[in-house]
Amino acid sequence: MRNSKVAIFLLSFFFLLVVSLIPVKAFAAVGDRATPYSAWDYHKFTLQEYSFDTPKVVDLQQFDMYVGDEANEIIQYENEFNRIPAVD
């Protein structure tokens, strides 16, 4: 009787050990809060800003990134009322 209890315990222990060592991967859907879209990859999704708007299919991909003075010049050119940002 004692040997069968020890055997059951050991089998249960090894079963739990093997099951806990098996890697399990859970993938979240791209585009939610935990895994946002990467702007460098091409994405196509449906956008409906307001409930009374008709849904639109939007293609999104970033091609360039502007930084520093070049970005400031583009911002100033697009709207003359934008102030030049202060130096950091």
Describe this structure in words.
- The protein is α+β, with helices and mostly antiparallel strands and 88 residues long.
- The protein has one domain.
- Helices cover 35% and strands 11% of the residues.
- The protein has two helices and two strands.
- A two-stranded antiparallel sheet has the order 1-2.
- Strand 1 and strand 2 form a beta hairpin.
- It starts with a helix and ends in a 10-residue tail after the last helix.
- The model has no long low-confidence stretch (mean pLDDT 80).
Please outline the helices and strands:
Blueprint (H helix, E strand, L loop, with lengths): L1 H20 L21 E5 L8 E5 L7 H11 L10
Antiparallel strand pairs: 1-2
Describe what is shown at a glance:
The chain is an alpha+beta fold.
Features:
88 residues, alpha+beta, two-stranded antiparallel sheet
Shape: elongated
* Estimated radius of gyration: 28 Å
| Spatial strand arrangement across the major sheet | 1-2
Low-pLDDT parts are none
Calculate the mean pLDDT score and round it: 80
Helix content: 25-40%
Provide the structure class. alpha+beta
- For the record, the count of structural domains works out to 1
Strand and helix order: HEEH
User: What is the end-to-end distance?
Assistant: 77 Å
Distinct helical segment count: 2
Number of DSSP E strands: 2
The proportion of residues in beta strands is 5-15%
Main beta-sheet strand count, sense and barrel state = 2 strands, antiparallel
